[in-house]
TrEMBL record:
Catalytic activity annotation: AMP + ATP = 2 ADP
Subcellular location: Cytoplasm
Family to which this protein belongs: Belongs to the adenylate kinase family.
InterPro entries, A to Z: Adenyl_kin_sub, Adenylat/UMP-CMP_kin, Adenylat_kinase_CS, P-loop_NTPase
Superkingdom of this protein's organism: Bacteria
CDD domains the UniProt entry points to: ADK
PANTHER family xref list: NUCLEOTIDE KINASE (PTHR23359)
UniProt name for this protein: Adenylate kinase
Positions of the UniProt region annotated as NMP: 31-60
Subunit and partners: Monomer.
This protein's record includes keyword Nucleotide-binding: yes
């Protein structure tokens, strides 16, 4: 099993690249943002509660997203590995994920962190806001609030993985194909290392 965390600020391309990577490597995509938007679409109590935070550009409470990821891991014992997109976003989430993966006798192989200049992030998100209907892309204040939340609560997650030598920065600006190539090179190495061990 190869488990990858695709890390990076809002708009860095995690979702875009995950969609391509799951096709190439046969991994399962777990995006907490997508799971939460699906709950909102279904108007579940969890979705309605989460929406209050998401519309302000704030993180949803840890226990909500940890519970969602735990259920998904349990429901998919046959998966060849996971790409985590938008999770973990706090150190508490990272610690919870370590425990959940240990129970499955597996772990995170690498955290691949997409680096994109802030002005480009803002441009990408506002641009998507024009057509996607995502309420958290609707204006610059909300987009900037998401980026502040990232710096305050999510960026420290890097240290959690860097201490195990699992954190790798990837240039996240350029064409989607160029970035896919850089990510693919890293994942190919991890897959080869895994095959050698088996
Ligand atoms: P989530 O859905 O995870 O959103 P996000 O991380 O804020 O970022 P995005 O999905 O907007 O960006 P992305 O990095 O995936 O980039 P994308 O590929 O989409 O979370 C939404 C909210 O849910 C959070 O704010 C929070 O409230 C809550 N939440 C989710 N997970 C949580 C958690 N674990 N804990 C607590 N709360 C949580 O690309 C963005 C745009 O850029 C697209 O239009 C794309 O076409 C474009 N683009 C991508 N790559 C390129 C490129 N190379 N060149 C030009 N444009 C590009």
């Amino acid at each position: 099993m190869v488990n990858i965390i695709l890390f990076g600020p809002p708009g860095s391309g995690k979702g875009t690249q995950s969609a391509n990577l799951i096709n190439k490597y046969g991994l399962m995509h777990l995006s907490t943002g997508d799971l939460l938007r699906s709950e909102i679409g279904d108007q579940t109590p969890l979705g309605l509660e989460a929406k209050k935070f998401m519309d302000q550009g704030q993180l949803v409470p840890d226990e909500v997203v940890i519970g969602m990821i735990s259920s998904k891991l349990e429901a998919n014992p046959e998966a060849r590995g996971f790409i985590f997109d938008g999770f973990p976003r706090t150190t508490a989430q990272a610690e919870a994920l370590d425990k959940l993966l240990t129970l499955k006798k597996t772990s995170i192989a690498a955290v691949l962190a997409l680096e994109v200049p802030e002005d480009e992030l803002i441009k990408r998100l506002l641009n998507r806001g024009l057509t996607s209907g995502r309420t958290d892309d609707a204006n610059e204040d909300i987009v900037k609030a998401r980026i502040v939340e990232y710096h305050n609560k999510t960026a420290p997650v890097a240290d959690h993985y860097a201490k195990y030598g699992k954190f790798k920065k990837i240039k996240g600006s350029g064409t989607v194909d160029e970035i896919f190539g850089l990510l693919g090179k890293e994942i190919d190495k991890l897959v080869a290392e895994k095959a050698e061990k088996v």
